[in-house]
Amino acid sequence: MFIRTSRSTMSHRQRKGNRLPQNSRLSLSSLRKRAGFVTMTVLLIALICFVGAIAMVSGSLMQVQSSARSQDRMTGLLLAEAGVDDAVTQASSDIAFTGRTATVYEDPPTNSKKFGTFTTTITEISGDKRKITSIGTNTNGTTRQVVAIITAGEQALGGAAIMSKGSVDITGNADVNSVPTPNLGISHVYANTDIKMKGSSTVDGILMAAGIVFGGSGSKGTVENGTPVLYPDTVTTNKWRLDWITEAKAGGTMGAVNKNDKITAPMFINGGINLGSKDKVELKGPGSIYVNGDIDLTAQTELLNGATLIVAGTFTQTGQSVYKVKTGTATPSTPTPTMVVYGSGYGATSDVIKLTGGSLADQQGIVYAVNGSIKVAGNSMFVGSLVAGGTGAQISVHG
Q1: How far apart are CA 102 and CA 210, in angstroms?
Q2: 234/362 Cα distance (integer angstroms)
Q3: Hey, is 326 helix, strand or coil?
Q4: pLDDT, tens digit, 9 for 90 and up, residues 309-366
Q5: Is 382 helix (H, G, I), strand (E, B) or coil?
Q6: Cβ(156)–Cβ(94) under 8 Å?
Q7: Are 306 and 331 spatial neighbours (Cβ–Cβ below 8 Å)?
Q8: CB under 8 Å to 9, separation ≥6 — which residues?
Q9: d(C-alpha 394, C-alpha 348), whole Å
Q10: What does pTM read for this prediction?
């Protein structure tokens, strides 16, 4: 009995020792639940990564689109402003001008790559005030609009750095730019026939010709076969002359000037102004001073002008001479003193205004050759607007 009992007990203990603890058993349903949890976690992480990737791509696309829109705004604005400049020039000499559409190219002279277009309209506000609306259109169709209000007047001829009723020739290392702040893209050149640009010359503006533009790689763009600028006719310029003579003689008459002097406008000088050996002459305004002859400045001479200066003959500068405008003393009708050179008796191809030999002409306004051509050469510097209004005239700028 004892022995059986012992065997039975040991047998019972052996069977009990082979059993797994109750808490270590894993059911099939529990394994399935844990596998499902792992799968959901992986999917959630993948979804987060996917959303993040989409956000990054979307942000990059938005930056690219923003950059493209910014570029469109800049080029559209440049085209619109070019249209305003063109409209000012046209309206200055043609009161009936109402606007036009023109194309600007960025690869002159081949003109195979269009930069864009501008379309201008001019409407009358009241009296001599005009409203210019200019729309610049990029090649992709986007547009920018600029509105300007102008007042018609004689100074409107200065709508460009260089304007010629004939041709314009820019060669060598000539540089046409804006002052005192350079590289504004506003130093435009207009010609009623052709424009020739050679050498390493640069123009910080657009070349606009009623004819053909030769060269032009150093410019901001070209416009060919444009509408010619209408200049004052002979009847108008002759009337100006008579009015200026009458005004000048009302202040008195004096002889030729060939030494240091100070002359107060209005004044009629019956002869020329010929300076040498570092002579200095000051013209005091406001009012008109009419020179019934030529003006010749040589040998480091200086002519300081604070009046409206009218020259019946020619104007010549050489030998590091200086012609400088004294601002703030002009007549109420002119923002800055204007020099008008009639070149009486000279042909269209004759140089009635010559700036050579390292001379400086700080006009800060308009120098207008009624007849004849204009020549700037020999490291000379001109600050202002050069205008040649005679039929067949030429403006030559040689660096």
Answers
A1: 11
A2: 28
A3: coil
A4: 999 999 998 877 888 887 644 444 444 557 899 998 888 888 999 888 666 666 556 8
A5: strand
A6: no
A7: no
A8: none
A9: 8
A10: 0.62
